[in-house]
Specification:
Helix 3 (about 105-110) crosses helix 4, helix 7 (about 210-220) packs parallel to helix 8 and helix 12 (about 340-355) runs antiparallel to helix 13 (about 370-385). With about 625 residues, the protein is of the alpha+beta class. The chain contains 21 helices and 25 strands. It starts with about 40 loop residues before the first strand and ends in a 7-residue tail after the last strand. It is about 35% helix and about 20% strand. The strands form six sheets. Strands 17-24-23-22-18-19-20-25 form an eight-stranded mixed β-sheet, sandwiched between helices. Strands 9-16-14-13-10-11-12 form a seven-stranded mixed β-sheet, with helices on both faces. The longest helix has 30 residues, at about 505-535. It has a domain at about 195-480 and about 525-605: Endonuclease, Chain A, CATH 3.30.870.10.
């Protein structure tokens, strides 16, 4: 029987849009229910159907550690999908490893030059069902493949150019505007940020970020500051929260800024646990002052010398994710070096600005102002060491050995004044792009250029810049969400309720929540698909939907500029919210991003169809 994941007493899951829901592995279930009238089918029969239907594009995994004895499946009503029964029913990894995709044979069968083009060719021959938001199927799939017509590819075993020819790396374009000192100084001026050099940068995908956060908390000597939108005290988050409480007991200064909506509604018990543990927590709200702006940041600083920034909230659908197990597919970035001081500065600014408001008690919260002396000391030393300052730009950017040596700017906006700049900053990078851009975003909302009333001018302008880049020959690959990811945590909550009722033997209620989930999800993602279709009408603009819920906010410009942050490419982030991103030029980081984004692309479905839907 499926159980809800354990959370603190008194804590309930959110059902409002954007709330962080308590999801379970049961959330992996589809809206279609398994009908008992469909007989159980042995693995040999299922594998025969799939291998025959795929015409050699798939092959059985020869790994003998996969114990197939007694494995059975049942056909799901609706799409041609086999669902695994028994002990492996909730084991996505097992089910995804049963078959392997022959990438080179797939490419040859479509007579294309790489895997991405082969997928576009294949899906362009399939009709798309708008009512259910999925392509037709020419042969049965396993449930854990979601919308993919092949087994998910968990590891890259071929050169990157076999999957996506644009990912072949021959070194940075030395004539790129990104290496122009005057261009970088212009960005400094418009964003009130600056470059630092010598940062060690490590991508933290999915649950690896939680492991690193706990490691950094335990290693901290003086203080731990975090500005993260939502914290849920579930089994995936508690190890980090309790580690922070333990460090507070040891005497470290531990502070958290979070969006006020969550501790005031669905996560009251978690907030109470933090406060009782001695953590100084500020609940920030700008919803009513600045057009429903949310504190959407996700960043940490440890002693001012190390930082983590990205897209992950602190909840188990992030912390327990491996990117394939039907939790969020997300990305953070570990920064070891001078850019961590910029994260510290932004935390101080955010803390002081909010605590000094009249409705927040200055007696309850300690001042962060004394940390400005530490910040000044860190930055002065970095300038002396040649790691910070415009006076170094010409030297750094002119030399091959330094122009891609951990150069980073930390761009964190607030929904007011000159600090509101991310859309304009991104526009400059798009204007300077020459070759290839890959970007991922969970949400997409913006007004068309010809709309009678443009409610989100920065977001509308952003997508105009992207399309202009495509028109001048830059290839754009953009990944967002479709039927598989749905409406994120909201979709997962409805799926969970359906599965709980099914386990209780209440098929009526189970089907009620399943139908509710499908109706809400299809409505939401139908809008996203229309926007993706519109964008893909621009030459050189290719759009995709991921087979998980992609929550990562990533951009790679010309294999030079890597971006990881909290910034959704939509009207809430670009026109309203508190948001932050690390924007870096680094050889190692660019290589990590190419691998990660290639995996994201090949495990996505192209927004193409025979019936142009």
């Amino acid at each position: 029987m499926i159980k809800r994941r354990k959370v603190l007493s008194g804590q309930v899951s959110a059902v409002a849009l954007g709330a962080i829901a308590a999801v379970t592995m049961a959330g992996a279930f589809a809206a279609e229910k398994i009908s008992e009238k469909n007989p159980a089918v042995a693995f040999d029969q299922v594998s025969s159907d799939i291998l025959k239907g795929s015409q050699g594009l798939l092959k059985l995994n020869s790994d003998k550690s996969l114990n197939l004895a007694g494995v059975q499946f049942r056909l799901v009503d609706g799409p041609a999908t086999y669902y695994t029964l028994g002990e492996h029913a909730r084991d996505p990894k097992f089910n995804q490893l049963l078959f392997q995709t022959d990438v080179r044979k797939y490419i040859a069968s479509e007579n294309t030059t790489d895997f991405l083009e082969a997928k576009r060719s294949y899906y362009s021959r399939l009709n798309f069902d708008l009512e259910h938001q999925r392509h037709e199927r020419l042969y049965p799939y396993l449930f854990d493949w979601k919308s993919l017509n092949h087994a998910p590819i968990r590891e890259l075993t071929e050169p990157l150019e076999v999957y996506a020819k644009e990912m072949k790396y021959t070194g940075p374009d030395t004539d790129s505007k990104y290496f122009d000192p005057n261009f970088q100084k212009e960005l400094d001026e418009m964003s009130q940020t600056e470059l630092s050099r010598g940062n060690k940068l490590t991508v933290l995908p999915n649950g690896k970020s939680q492991i690193e956060k706990i490691r950094q908390v335990k290693a901290a000597k003086h203080f731990i500051f975090a500005a993260v939108m939502a914290w849920e005290c579930d089994e995936g988050a508690l190890p980090l929260i309790d580690a922070m409480i333990e460090k507070r007991k040891e005497g470290l200064d531990v502070r958290i800024i979070m969006e006020k909506f969550y501790p005031d509604t669905v996560f009251k018990a978690c907030y109470k646990r933090m406060e009782e543990g001695g953590i100084d927590v500020v609940r920030l709200t700008d919803k009513f002052k600045y057009k429903f702006a949310f504190m959407h940041n996700k960043f940490f600083t440890f002693d001012g010398t190390t930082g983590i920034i990205g897209g992950q909230n602190i909840a188990h659908f992030e912390t327990l994710s491996d990117g394939f197990n039907h939790y969020n597919r997300d990305t953070d970035l570990l920064i070891e070096g001078p850019a961590a001081a910029d994260i510290l500065e932004n935390f101080i600014d955010l803390w002081e600005n909010h605590v000094n408001r009249r409705f927040v008690s200055t007696e309850k919260h300690s001042s962060a102002y004394p940390y400005r002396s530490l910040l000044k000391e860190l930055r002065n030393q970095q300038v002396m060491d040649g790691k910070r300052g415009q006076m170094h730009y010409a030297d750094w950017l002119s030399k091959p050995e330094t122009r891609m040596d951990g150069l980073c700017r930390i761009a964190i906006q607030r929904p007011y004044g000159r600090n509101f700049f991310l859309a304009d900053l991104y526009a400059k990078y798009f204007d300077a792009a020459k070759h290839h851009i890959v970007m991922t975003t969970p949400d997409m909302h913006f007004d068309a250029d010809d709309a009678k009333k443009i409610k989100s001018p920065k977001t509308t302008g952003f997508y105009k810049n992207v399309r202009e880049a495509a028109k001048r020959g830059v290839r754009i690959d953009q990944i967002s969400n479709g039927r598989d990811g749905g409406w994120g945590e909201f979709t997962a909550q409805l799926r969970e309720w359906s599965n709980e009722e099914e386990d209780k033997g209440h098929p009526g209620w189970a089907n009620y929540w399943a139908r509710k989930e499908e109706k809400q999800t299809v409505s939401k993602i139908g809008e996203t698909r229309e926007l993706l279709k519109m964008l893909s009408q621009t030459p050189n603009y290719y759009t995709w939907t991921h087979f998980q819920y992609i929550h990562a906010k990533q951009i790679l410009w010309d294999n030079i500029i890597s971006v990881i942050g909290s910034v959704n490419l939509d009207n809430t982030a670009l026109d309203r919210n508190h948001e932050g991103a690390a924007i870096c030029m680094d050889e190692s980081l660019a290589a990590q991003m190419r691998n990660l984004l290639t995996l994201d692309l090949i495990n996505s479905t192209p927004v193409v169809s025979k019936n142009n839907e």
